[in-house]
């Protein structure tokens, strides 16, 4: 039988139309098979790390409840009038205006700055000098390290009561020592000129142990070849200290300096226990005034405003600390 060219063309065209959809195939199953493994991998990853996620959630919850929420709540109280007997009322910046108008506000900041300055003079130099001396010793180093760190392990209230007896104007230890040398007794905590210095000495003695151990660890990391080269060049102890020790510990010294500023600006226990802010408000610090606002005057809005300002100031120093550590890293 003869097939015409027209019939052959029609047959080919019809065959192509029938085979086209079958050859292409439906795209939906391909997408389903591609998405299925992704979801299964996600479910498997969640299932394998479920315990870790639960522990992480517990930690975040603890921080949120006991750290972040009090910070946020305290900042909000600074803009409210709070009595805890009636609902809090928003007062805007009135609490901050009352702070500025309070004569003790500037006095507290001045006293805190003075305490911080004295703490840098005594509390920053004493641990470094102690660490350098201990590092040069060859015998009894471990015993002396324990002795230096012992005050840190004492409860703060025990330390304050011990030093109150030292400063006692009658049978106190310091006045008895002065009497041995025929020197006049001093009113250590009752004199406006000596009260703040006395508090700084207490704080330095109680807290220098930790910083001393940090300096000792840093001194142990300085290469001994540097000291040997300095000795061969005829450098004295003072020259080795100035040209080798301090440059090698420059970063550690800067970090401890910032941490000490942050810590000393939060001084509270020493003036609260030893002087109560006296004599004549000469030792009223920021935290002590904040305590008075909250628990003596029952003005929690004013106390929260004071804490917010202190938080901002300390946050600036903390930012410098983070910047330095990030640069070092």
What does this protein structure show overall?
The protein has helices at 5-24, 28-48, 50-77, 94-101, 103-122, 125-136, 141-153, 156-167, 173-180, 195-220, 224-232, 237-248, 250-264, 269-275, 286-296, 300-328; strands spanning 80-81, 89-90. Helix 6 packs across helix 10 and helix 15 packs antiparallel against helix 16. The chain contains 16 helices and two strands. A hairpin with a 7-residue loop joins strand 1 and strand 2 (89-90). The chain is an all-alpha fold and 329 residues long. The radius of gyration is 35 Å and the shape is flat.
Distance between the termini: 91 Å
> Would you report the number of β strands?
2
Proportion in helices: over 70%
Q: If strands are numbered along the chain, what order do they take across the biggest sheet?
A: 1-2
Beta-strand content: under 5%
Which class of secondary structure composition applies to the elements? mainly alpha
Low-pLDDT segments, ≥5 res:
1-25, 28-35
Rg result: 35 Å
Number of helices: 16
Helix/strand order, N-terminal first: HHHEEHHHHHHHHHHHHH
Identify the quaternary structure here.
single chain
Quick tags:
mainly alpha, disordered N terminus, two-stranded antiparallel ribbon, 2 strands, single chain, 329 residues, 16 helices
